[in-house]
Design goal:
Layout lengths: L2 H12 L4 H18 L11 E3 L6 E3 L1 E4 L6 H12 L4 E4 L7 H11 L9 E6 L5 H11 L4 E7 L5 H16 L3 E3 L1 E4 L3 H11 L6 E5 L12 H19 L3 E5 L3 H5 L3 H13 L4 E4 L4 H8 L9 H13 L9 H5 L6 H13 L3 H11 L3 H5 L6 H5 L7 H11 L1
Parallel strand pairs: 3-4, 3-11, 4-5, 5-6, 6-7, 6-8, 8-9, 9-10, 10-11
Antiparallel strand pairs: 1-2
Helix pairs in contact: 1-2, 3-4, 7-8, 10-12, 14-15, 14-18
The chain binds iron/sulfur cluster (2 copies).
Length: about 400
């Protein structure tokens, strides 16, 4: 653990004489720790901004470690950090546990890599503190910089459970910052958070494909939803939320080189992201990212290149969750489309199978899809529909 952070927390807590006072001082302690949350190795060398109220100088591109499966992947993570990338996101389930074990290998190696990054851990089970304990133990660290707990539906009950989880983790020093992750009904979740928990979360990892007022992505309805997304994001950012972008097409763009990736990243930053999370698969990609110019405003040419890339992705799931909300059978159609993305777009068959299994939907429930077309009627990407549901469920169920 970074000594300065430990001393800061102990020093502040030493002035607090009773348990009841801890709650009142909680946010003060967090604020002081937020100010102390800096990379231990000096200012970032790559283009960076501030991650909301955490004040962490996050690099504009960060490392999603979801596909770290072996030693060569660990070497790529190491190279990315050596070149300046300073935020990493992982979880116990990624790549069958290989992701977190790979990151652990790097953290335990010489070089102090743990303190060179802002560590985000994804949580699936807010009621199970052991989930975090096990990840910290694997990683050989006593804290994460933020926990990002899944919040895909605008459920007050789930929100309360997450707050209980994260309050307890903060109090015990196991996390420095609160957070959530959403690739479900993102607009509704953002609206709920801004009403029920404004100012509570420090960081969010959000599916950003709808952001930035994407014109022409599927007619007036899609444009209206995109504007709704932008408005909801603006409210949360005004309350200090730090925003990490995911599932925007960054993984495809990074594979197409600087001419595609740079404008794509800039368009997401313009849409409100503080950092764009992406899988990074090779040393070549690390070097490309290290050479990006992300500090200047978008030129007309870049705007055009970003629009062309989005156009090539027309038909990709926007992660809006509308199909799920519309389904009279209550089927998680949006999650199934995410599984499809992993399988057909990314080629991650094992991850797709694991994510499908995690949905916990019995085969007979999928069979109950009755071709009512409610999901296809609302899908702005023209993707959801009984044919896709039966094809995907038929493959995995
Ligand atoms: S077609 Fe199937 S998945 Fe789509 S809304 Fe109707 S029952 Fe649900
Ligand atoms: S399949 Fe369509 S409706 Fe469902 S989440 Fe994706 S874009 Fe939205």
């Amino acid at each position: 653990m970074n000594e300065n952070r430990a001393i800061s927390r102990r020093g502040l807590l030493s002035g607090v004489g009773c348990v009841a006072c801890l709650g009142a001082f909680g946010r003060l302690v967090m604020a002081a720790e937020a100010a102390a949350t800096r990379p231990a190795v000096g200012p970032p060398r790559l283009s960076h901004g501030l991650l909301g109220r955490t004040k962490y100088p996050v690099t504009r591109v960060s490392f999603g470690a979801i596909r770290i499966t072996d030693r060569s992947g660990v070497r790529v993570v190491k190279a990315a950090i050596d070149r300046g990338v300073n935020l990493i996101h992982t979880s116990a389930s990624y790549a069958g546990g290989n992701s977190i074990r790979g990151v652990a290998e790097l953290f335990k190696a010489p070089g102090g890599y743990r303190d060179k990054v802002f560590l985000c851990l994804k949580s699936y089970h807010p009621q199970r503190e052991a989930e975090i304990d096990e990840m910290l133990s694997t990683l050989g660290t006593d804290h994460a910089d933020a926990v990002l707990t899944e919040l895909h539906e605008p459920s007050r009950e789930r929100l309360d459970a997450i707050r209980r989880q994260q309050d307890a983790l903060l109090k015990k020093g196991k996390i420095r910052h609160t957070g959530f992750v959403c690739h479900g009904r993102t607009i509704e979740v953002m609206k709920m958070v801004s009403v029920e928990a404004r100012g509570y979360f420090d960081v969010a990892l959000l599916a950003m494909a709808m952001g930035g007022g994407r014109p022409g992505r599927g007619g007036n309805r899609a444009d209206a939803r995109s504007q709704e997304f932008d408005k909801a994001l603006k409210v949360l950012k005004a309350a200090g939320l730090g925003v990490l972008s995911m599932k925007s097409g960054a993984k495809e763009a990074v594979g197409q080189g600087k001419k595609v990736f740079e404008p794509h990243v800039k368009s997401l930053l313009e849409a409100g992201a503080d950092s764009v999370l992406t899988s990074i698969n090779s040393f070549q990609q690390v070097e490309m990212i290290a050479g990006l110019d992300l500090g200047s405003p978008m030129s007309e040419g870049e705007r055009q290149a970003a629009a062309e890339f989005r156009e090539r992705r027309r038909g990709a799931c926007l992660m809006c969750g509308e199909c799920r909300a519309a389904c009279p059978r209550g089927l998680p159609v949006n999650d199934l489309m995410r599984v499809r993305l992993y399988l057909e777009t990314y080629g991650w068959a094992d991850h797709a199978a694991a994510e499908f299994a995690a949905l916990g939907v019995a085969p007979e429930q999928w069979s109950a899809c009755g071709d009512c077309r409610a999901c296809s009627a609302v899908c702005p990407a023209g993707l959801a529909g009984a044919a896709t549901v039966h094809a995907m469920a038929g493959r995995f169920a």
